């Protein structure tokens, strides 16, 4: 807080900004935006503006304060349950290859052209003030195009209401964050807000997954100037992936598009990345990139941190890091790795505390059904009992046939769990470490403990070579 500042009293899930207004005034705020009067009243020389929704006000104020930066940019919002970060990064790569200086705001990193800085905030979509500050910085640096990975949280909490999205790009919508949204329909309603924002422009563009039986009918009913669909499963769509083949080194597909056909050889593993690539192609080519440039950019992308990321220290088995933290994403990744594994498939994973509880046994059941060895561990327990979280997951795995201390192991300490799996792995095995991906901390109680999944794996593999 600096002298002369405006303080916006935003009510949150755990803190209410109204309780901190007096302290803000004491530190120099000269005006307060709030949803209700203060008792006792603030000093008479402090202006108090009452609004119906402080978050809506904060969004409009943040955009205006930074000079409405998104109005000077071609902004694409990418949302969905899984694949958001990969698709966002693919679109950044496609636009860059087409000669557009492109910014990226994603769960993993912030990019200004080729400059990359890790996102350590643990947020996909930041508060409105920070979002518009970053957009203004990218505008001032000379970017013309920006990809904003956009979460359901950010949409539900009005953090991006005043971002002038031209494109709304959707990956598959399954089920996540029901602790915030309540149910799957409200979760989809939050996601649909992105398309409503893009649809308000006369030149708005929607990119929709035609294979998504849950989300597509709702999203397709929202008016927008241009609607493009894509399919990696053979549905009738504007962009279609044909002859898809997948292996440990990447994915190859023939893309049929409105701008011509192309063979795409992705360096990213995972058959599901065929759909992500089509979504990125649709967004890039509909905004001026040539098909040739967009394909070149996407195929040059070597990796997305924490997404199907291989760790190779010379060991005779495969180790993969992935951010999969829903039942659907875990099933996709395990299915992909199952097909590429000649021996046993291991999975090390957990589930976050103070988040969707219902998904825990479902994820356990997926692991118990698809993996040969299931190791249940910490993710981010926060203020929940980490052992209780693990047991909820393990119960689902047991119902799917996993046997305790045989094919199912509960090891709450994540470093120990990873070591257990890596030391038990043999030639031809695959070990998937899921849930943390790129994240640089583990949230436990009131602590944020430093964490690097790749370093933890390499430490064990290095010990094994000595």
Largest sheet: 11 strands, mixed
Structural class: alpha/beta
| The CATH architecture of the largest domain | 3-Layer(aba) Sandwich
Strand content: 15-25%
Level-1 CATH class name of the largest domain: Alpha Beta
Average pLDDT number: 93
State the total count of DSSP E strands: 22
The third-level CATH topology of the largest domain is UDP-N-acetylmuramoyl-L-alanine:D-glutamate ligase
Tell me what the structure shows.
It is a single chain. Helix 2 runs parallel beside helix 4 and helix 9 runs antiparallel to helix 10. This protein is 35% helix and 23% strand. The chain has three domains: 47 residues, no CATH class; 232 residues, UDP-N-acetylmuramoyl-L-alanine:D-glutamate ligase, CATH 3.40.1190; 157 residues, Alpha-Beta Complex (Protein-Tyrosine Phosphatase, Chain A). It is of the alpha/beta class and 466 residues long. The strands form four sheets. It has an eleven-stranded mixed β-sheet with strand order 7-6-5-8-4-9-10-11-12-13-14, with helices on both faces. A six-stranded mixed β-sheet has the order 15-16-20-17-18-19, sandwiched between helices. A three-stranded parallel β-sheet has the order 1-2-3.
What distinguishing features does this structure have?
globular, Protein-Tyrosine Phosphatase, Chain A, eleven-stranded mixed sheet, six-stranded mixed sheet, 23% strand, UDP-N-acetylmuramoyl-L-alanine:D-glutamate ligase, alpha/beta
